[in-house]
Amino acid sequence: MTNRFALYICRTALSLTMISLVAGCSQFSTKPAAVGFHNLSGHYNAYFIAEQGLAEAEFQMNKAYKENYNELLPILLPMDSVLSLPVKPQLQDAIKKASIVAEKHQNSKWVDNSYIVLGKSRLYLGEWADGLEALRYVYANGKDENDKNNALILLMRAYIIRKDFSNALGVAEYLSQQPLSKASTREFYLTKAYLHQQNGEYLTSVAILEEAFPLLKKSTETARIHFAAAQMYDRLGQYGLANKHYKSVSKNRPGYDLGFYSAMNSLQNEVVLNPKKDLDDVGFDKMLRDRKNADLNDKIYFTMGLLAEHRKQIPEAISYLQKAVAASKGTNMEQKAYSYLQLARINYESLEKFELSKAYYDSALTILPQQAPEYKLVSERKRALDEFVKHYSVVNTEDSLQKLAQMNPAALDNRIDAIIEAQEAARKEQEAKERKAMLAAQNTNVQSVQNPLINGGERRWELYDPALINQGRTEFKRTWGNRPLEDDWRRSSRQMRSLAGNDTNAPDSLAAQTEVIADNSLKKGTPEWDALHASLKQNIPLTEGQMADSQKKKEDALYNLGKIYRFDLQESQRSINTFERVLTEYPKTQYKEELYYLLYLTYEADNDKNTWKNKLFDEYPTSTYARLVGKASDSNLAGSGNPVKEYEAAYALYSKGDYTKALDDIEQNLPAYKGHAMEDKFALLRVFLIGKVRGKDAYTQAIAEFMRLYPSSIYLPRLKEMQELNSLSMGKR
């Protein structure tokens, strides 16, 4: 009995001891033993695993990230939720493990680090609110100053990615006053340089990077940062400093593509720095012969094209760029898009071949990814060129027809005959080229026919295989239909068979064959020739009514071209030239007052602006456009206000029924925001207000003006509905 009692006492004492030990290791205890236990457990049971999982996920995302060397490389890689999809389980596991430290080891020194891992993982997953909250928690409640600074650096990076440059700059200014460790200083410099790079402040960005490079170890990541610095120096026009960093890329263990593009850009800068340097001596030929560059030949030709254009060698530039297009294959189709864009730009700017430029823009858009930075700009330019080419063709066509109409009848007939002869000559030349190509292809096919018994008869000839005979018969019928059993059954190629020597009556030479075919061509004096002559002549405006219609088409097309230059292509001088051409050729044009207003807006010099303003006031003092110019002059606006607030203020007046005051404010503000994204929104509200204040006639005119001034506005369908409703109501009245 005594032994049992003693055993009970021992067990009770042991239990109480264990309870006291466990209580002493509480996550809320500050005792050394408790803190040590939670430091050890929190580190190796949770934080270490979470950190390793995040590091592995980052490695996989960096590996999957595809650099675009035609664009400015970001100093820091983006936090892209799409890129994180393949590693989502690892990131979620890192969040789960990091959360254990916050939940069960609150007195551990790894709590701040775990929150940073948790916040960073959530940012990668696109959970921005939760990620930012975790980082802000570390800054507000963290115990370790270094961890708080690291959380702020990551928070600044998140702000940059979200384009919140104001908050990012505020964090940067705070961190610049804090004592940072060497590792934190390195990350801070890179993040601040990234901030200025993304904000377009390249000079500040490279200045910060120059301070950061001594802190960076040799690595592939350091190589790409050197490349990014070189690209920014390129944009600043400091090609010597750019080459310094391009050459530093090769000293930092770059990947093959990164090394190739840095070498290419360095060669390009050497040519720019030394204008007398021969392109043949640069080393491009050697790079083209290198088998390792077989899938990068398009980039080499592309660079050669850029250099040729830089030297004003436009034909050579086009040739190189066309070779670049031909060399783009497989996964490198994005480079093909950039080659098309360069060809489009050269044909537009240097050669003024607008239709060809439009075609190249069309080709580029079919390849260029929608997420590419240039996609929206290229899409808008392509849309503008679609309209531009349409009106440009009208101007050229009507101009040519009007010149023909001024010729005397005999000279006109001779001119039309000459046009037909030129067309016929071009057609025959094209047909001759096609025949030569077909003959060459046929000869190649004939020569390539192999012995029916291959390798000692191992493969059966098709005519001995019933299955192959049936298959061939089926394919023949599907392609050619039921044909009679006769020679030269492929009628489209009978001439080819004759040229190949199967026809004993055929001419002996290609020249003779061409002559035989030419005998069947269109001849002057035949009914066919006369019919074609008459059809061409009927398009020429020979009567007064036809000439008036032609002039009207040309006037409208010129007016539309000027507006496309002004609003879509942003080419002020060409728009001015076109507007003034309309006024010169059509002094009584219906667009006269509007053109005065547009010229007033487009000219930059005060003297020129005043000239057109005075014309508008003198000739159309009561017009809407004069009122708009007068309001802008009276208020002395220069577009420095806040368009959103001014629009909201005017709309508030409209909602309250104070239409007159709202209209005055709109007409006062509208000229100041010409070209602004909200301009058509101001103009739309103005249309509504005119309907309330000035009556139906002014309302109808305002709708028409809106449709002329903003042909690509998203509000145009709504205005058309309003116009139809207004027409119906006027009809009923």
From TrEMBL:
Matching InterPro entries: TPR-like_helical_dom_sf, TPR_rpt
First and last residue of the signal peptide: 1-23
Gene3D superfamilies: Tetratricopeptide repeat domain (1.25.40.10)
Keyword Acetylation recorded: no
A Pfam family that the UniProt record links to this protein: TPR_6
Alphabetic keyword roster: Signal
The protein, known as: Tetratricopeptide repeat protein
Species, as recorded: Dyadobacter chenhuakuii
Lineage of the organism: Bacteria, Pseudomonadati, Bacteroidota, Cytophagia, Cytophagales
